[in-house]
């Protein structure tokens, strides 16, 4: 079976290298790993030795032990238990966009039977069908960020449910059929009895954010199990905001990313080489 993480060793070192604005040549000079070998490692064509992992981690400000665990495919997060929170239900909708799976989510308040749709997975008809199957009212549409795989198809979903759409005020605005409700760090959106708090995680995009309620966070592309989203806006900003706003939550907080398996704060503190 293929390794189940969104990002493997090659993606991780490429994201860190680009985040630090290093060329392959510069990384080669300090690690003494030939630049064609680095290129093959980034493309999954060459497995590193433990010594090479250690040198790369050192130069790329990654945690060497955690990076080696992923290079040797020794860690995946434990699956999220069904009904892990009696007050809410999380429904994962996975769709294929350009050959890669992306997740949208339904967040259901079990007490009031109301729910929110988080992101579109660029498959509005699937999201509409899955939301209708819940047979409970949709009271909010939330967007973690505006990349096409997370926000395309928004107008169709808005037309199906006639409910407000919330997006961070610093985020580029997607095509929308209704006026967008702009939110920022600390703002709360009510989904039944669930208070969903906005936490800023800019860096992957200018106004990327995550949505936090009880022991659940929908994290978009801010953090993946064992990795982070790419960070063309600010690598430092992404790492520091995730460190400050997500990894300070209790260890048993479940994280639901836009790609790859769900994880927890505790798992990421113990296994994510970026932290
Ligand atoms: Fe993204």
Descriptive notes:
The protein has 275 residues and is α/β, with parallel strands linked by helices. It folds into two domains: 9-71, 434 Repressor (Amino-terminal Domain) (Orthogonal Bundle); 88-271, Metallo-beta-lactamase, Chain A (4-Layer Sandwich). 31% of the residues lie in helices and 25% in strands. The protein is built from ten helices and 14 strands. The strands form three sheets. Strands 1-2-3-4-5-6 form a six-stranded mixed β-sheet, covered by helices on one side. Helix 4 (50-59) packs across helix 5 and helix 6 packs parallel to helix 8 (154-161). The mean pLDDT is 96. The structure holds fe (ii) ion.
Question: Would you spell out the secondary-structure blueprint of this structure?
Answer:
Blueprint: H1 9-19, H2 24-31, H3 35-42, H4 50-59, H5 64-71, E1 88-97, E2 100-109, E3 114-118, H6 124-134, E4 138-142, H7 148-151, H8 154-161, E5 165-168, E6 180-183, E7 188-191, E8 194-200, E9 209-213, E10 216-220, E11 223-224, E12 227-228, H9 235-245, E13 254-257, E14 263-264, H10 265-271
Parallel strand pairs: 3-4, 4-5, 5-6, 10-13
Antiparallel strand pairs: 1-2, 2-3, 7-8, 8-9, 9-10, 11-12, 13-14
The structure holds fe (ii) ion (FE2).
Fe (ii) ion (FE2) is lined by residues 145, 147, 150, 204, 221, 229.
């Amino acid at each position: 079976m293929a390794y189940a993480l969104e990002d493997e060793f090659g993606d991780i070192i490429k994201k860190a290298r680009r985040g630090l604005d290093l060329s392959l040549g510069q990384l080669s000079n300090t690690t003494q790993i030939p630049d064609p070998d680095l290129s093959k490692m980034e493309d999954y064509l060459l497995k590193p030795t433990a010594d090479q992992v250690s040198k790369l981690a050192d130069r790329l400000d990654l945690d060497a032990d955690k990076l080696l665990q992923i290079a040797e495919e020794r860690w995946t997060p434990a699956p999220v238990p069904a009904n892990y929170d009696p007050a809410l239900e999380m429904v994962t909708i996975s769709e294929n966009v350009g050959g890669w799976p992306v997740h949208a989510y339904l967040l259901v308040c079990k007490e009031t039977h109301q729910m929110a749709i988080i992101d579109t997975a660029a498959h509005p008809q699937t999201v509409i069908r899955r939301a209708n199957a819940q047979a409970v009212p949709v009271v909010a549409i939330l967007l973690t960020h505006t990349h096409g795989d997370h926000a395309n198809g928004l107008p169709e979903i808005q037309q199906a449910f006639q409910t407000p759409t919330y997006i961070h005020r610093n985020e580029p605005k997607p095509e929308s059929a209704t006026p967008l409700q702009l939110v920022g760090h600390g703002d709360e959106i009510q989904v039944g009895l669930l208070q969903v708090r906005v936490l800023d995680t800019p860096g992957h995009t200018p106004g990327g954010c995550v949505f936090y309620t009880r022991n659940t966070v929908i994290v978009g592309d801010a953090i993946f199990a064992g990795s982070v989203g790419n960070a063309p806006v600010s690598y430092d900003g992404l790492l520091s905001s995730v460190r400050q706003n997500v990894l300070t939550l209790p260890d048993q907080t479940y994280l639901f990313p836009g790609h790859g398996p769900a994880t927890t704060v505790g798992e990421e503190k113990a296994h994510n080489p970026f932290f």
